[in-house]
Specification:
Layout: H1 2-15, H2 19-41, H3 50-73, H4 77-91, H5 100-113, H6 122-133, H7 139-150
Helix pairs in contact: 1-2, 2-4, 3-4, 5-7, 6-7
Length: 151
């Protein structure tokens, strides 16, 4: 289970006295705890599952990527470097990402299966992609490709 891998990585990082990795893993676990609490309010007493954890990790990477851009524009390379290291720590828990050429093929096949013809079908196509490729696909890139193919 992904949650166990994160806990084990935190223990290993603490033993190795790797402060940056420990800090990044604690951020992940804090975000997980927040999502678990929200899930309990909705009746899910066991917390979120691996698919939701993968989506959480991807959103954390996206946030950090945006922060890196802002820090670099502001001349704060030290903070950009820290965010880059956090991304590397988070990425170790994600499955291998789909290559760009495979991304286009996967999107094309889903569009065909979902009978997508116009931009009105984009939501349905994106939902099918998220169901099948959570954690393995960058949905920002996928959205642009879907939009282009449906236009």
């Amino acid at each position: 289970m992904l949650r166990d891998r994160i806990d084990d990585a935190l223990k290993d990082a603490m033993l190795a006295k790797s402060q940056e990795v420990v800090a990044a893993l604690r951020l992940i676990l804090a975000a997980l705890k927040d999502r678990d609490i929200a899930a309990r309010a909705k009746g899910n007493l066991e917390g979120i599952g691996d698919d939701e954890i993968l989506a959480l990790l991807q959103s954390m990477i996206k946030q950090r990527s945006e922060s890196i851009e802002m820090y670099e524009k502001g001349g704060r390379l030290d903070l950009a470097e820290r965010e880059t290291k956090e991304i590397a720590t988070i990425e170790q828990f994600l499955p291998e990402q789909i290559a760009d050429d495979e991304l286009v093929d996967a999107i094309t096949s889903v569009i065909i299966e979902e009978k997508g013809k116009t931009l009105k079908d984009m939501g349905r196509v994106m939902a099918a992609l998220k169901e099948r490729y959570t954690g393995r696909m960058d949905f920002a890139k996928a959205s642009a490709v879907v939009k282009k193919q449906l236009s």
